[in-house]
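pipeline/complex-builder :: batch 7 item 3
reading input block
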Amino acid sequence: MTDSVALPGPTPPSARQQQRNAFRRRRTLRRAVVGTISSLVVLGLLVWVVTSAPGWPRVRETFFSANHARESFPAIRDAFWLNVRLFLMVELLVLPLALLIAVVRVVPAPAMAPFKFLAAAYTDVFRGIPTILIVMLVGFGFPALGLSGLPTSLFWLGTIALTLSYGAYVAEVIRAGILSVHPTQWAAGRALGLGYGQTLTRVILPQAIRNVTPPLMNDFVSLQKDTALVSTIGLVEALRAASVYQASTFNVTSLCVAAVFFIVVTIPLARFTDWLTIRSMRRQGGR
Amino acid sequence: MLRIDGVRKSFGDHVVLDGIDLHVKPGEVVCLIGASGSGKSTLLRCIDLLELTDDGDIHLGDLELTDPALDENRARARIAFVFQAFNLFPHLTVLQNLVLGPRRVKGIGRAEAERRARELLTRVGLADKVSAYPDSLSGGQQQRVALVRAVAMDPELLLLDEVTSALDPLLVAEVLEVVRDLKGSGMTIVMATHEMRFARESADRIVFLADGRIVESGPPEQIFTAPRDPRTRAFLERHLG
């Protein structure tokens, strides 16, 4: 084909095709314009409804005061650092714990029976108890036991409580992931001569974790917010710092400042999750 | 009835269809043959608007399928497509698979849609599988269900994309039997296939594709006994050999 008439590049589109392309471009533009206008109208309406409410001036002063925001900001920022440390530490501990629990629950070995029972009991109990209650039980109960070796620092007590609670949730998510991998994958792994454990770690778990990345990340976003629960045992994290300010000034702006801190850290995680999901879909789907 | 003129399609730098012209008459059965990657499936997918063409015109009767302002669903209600991998809905029974399209797209009443579905299932020997779920059927049975699911929409045009490629040889026959039966009832069919014997016996016209072009087309006897192009000859030798 190369030695025939020299064609410069691909065939130029026909006149009809140029019309089609132009039509599609116009349609894309029209859709973008409609989308933008409808977004502006909806947002505008929302803002108008809220700001035209009779109580708005007072609400703005109590909830969204720039002065109070500026004043409370440094204390909340410093306290929020504790939320971040808690979150990172709990996440680090939750993953191996949950993985262990999930694997124990799916492994068929009869010798594992008592551990399977314990693992099932753990997920049932800790998913059943409100997280705030677990935080209080651990935070007040552990020190009261007076056992030597148990940590007494509030940070570690908070960490233990959140890990216990979220370990149960995440274990169930991972177990669902393992069960979602098609049974033929087990067969394919075993047929290659891989043992049960090898099949699990090399074939099943990588697919399982990928399948449940979105709900897993969902749990971590939830965990970021629930770090605020440790304020109940006296830790001064962002929410506590904000309510201290609120109690002394009778202005709620500080709580909104704390809310913004939580939002700011969860949004990147949510976008990161979307990106991960799309990437793995694209990789496995070919195009 | 189906008119394809100068259709082009590339995936990135890879040219899959390089100017295809093909006109199909009502009631005609056209078999597309050619090596894997020659563009058979892509052509079928372009006709059913599952892929967007880069250039060229496709008409179905008075309807221009390549018109960007076209309502795709309206067009697809007149065309039926059967996939290599069956693509039955696993959460629905055989009967539910069959009545979904007629009821939701064509607005046919439940009783009427079910009566017609049972009739079609009887015709392909699956009357007893009405309430079975697709995964409990053999590949051949699933593909027969997929065929009647397509036919239940009363399409003007039936597109078959290598419908027997995922089946073992024993099951191929029962599926091709259904296709032959459909031809007998006057259905217009364009099918991509590797079943040379079936193509030779049942097609009205054979179209041989290579490198995204129609190399040769004509009645089966001519293509199989006296192919003009050396590429057709080489392909047939390999497949009939």
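note: Chain A touches chain B through eleven residues (CB under 8 Å).
queue -> next item
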